[in-house]
Design brief:
Pfam families: HTH_30 (PF13556). With 290 residues, the chain is an alpha+beta fold. It is built from twelve helices and nine strands.
Amino acid sequence: MNIQTLQQIYPEAIKQAHATKNPNYFVFEEGHDFLWVPVHNLSKTERQLLQTFFKPKKIGQNIENHVWYEAVFQHQNAPVTAGRFRMIQVEFSSLDEATANDWNDELTNIFPQLVDHFFVSDTYGLIIEAYHEDSLTTEDLAGVFLALDGDFNTYTRLFVGSFFPYTEDFTRILAEERQLFDHELQRSNHEKCHNLSSTSLNYFAEESVKNSYLMRMLYQDWFKSEEDLVEIIQALWNNQGNISSTAKDLFMHRNTLQYKLDKFQQQTQCNLKNMNDLFLAYLLISTFKN
């Protein structure tokens, strides 16, 4: 039995992005989706039948108590008044309660700018990190979590989200980043760590970029006050990322161009010398530039 079938049988059921410990619901999990089935109208027989499909959950039921819960799952304002933040999704092959507690202890060492984290289910967790110029790159995080896998005898895969201002709708952003992550996990299990740059080509080749809230907000955040970067990225793309050729086309000193690229990378974690990152930036300006 899957979520779609249950929704047809129980129209009052609510599809959510997380589990709950609320005794008024049975929670049915399928992938990264959760269906909350109200128990108040169920007969005794229905309850007994549904209990055979619902596994008791020890992990991922207390996330309502976290400070970022409403921002991440209920479209509410972030519990801060300044800053930029990213969400890092972690998919586990297996995780028990004892391992989860030990794993939690390591997070503050890995993420000095950690603001919240919680397990959504037994196999899926979420980390929320404030921006810092020394924030770990996707490549760095792949190495760190590879080491953690050895320490805790598990296997993790990650999606490293982009940094967004605290004023944005993190519920909508997470929903789209989860779609990107799920899409990539279905394509291949070989890559340890994914991000928007590495998944955009495959995913948005199938989806409409213009209808993406995530992509539109990213464009506004990266380029709304950086008009010269649009021209730089277009020139870089035309020169296949070659800095010397790009500087020549722009009548710009190579060191000046390098400085602008380094500054952009520091602010966005987007390395325009990497072709995946360059493609993402080019896709954004091609779609949303007036």
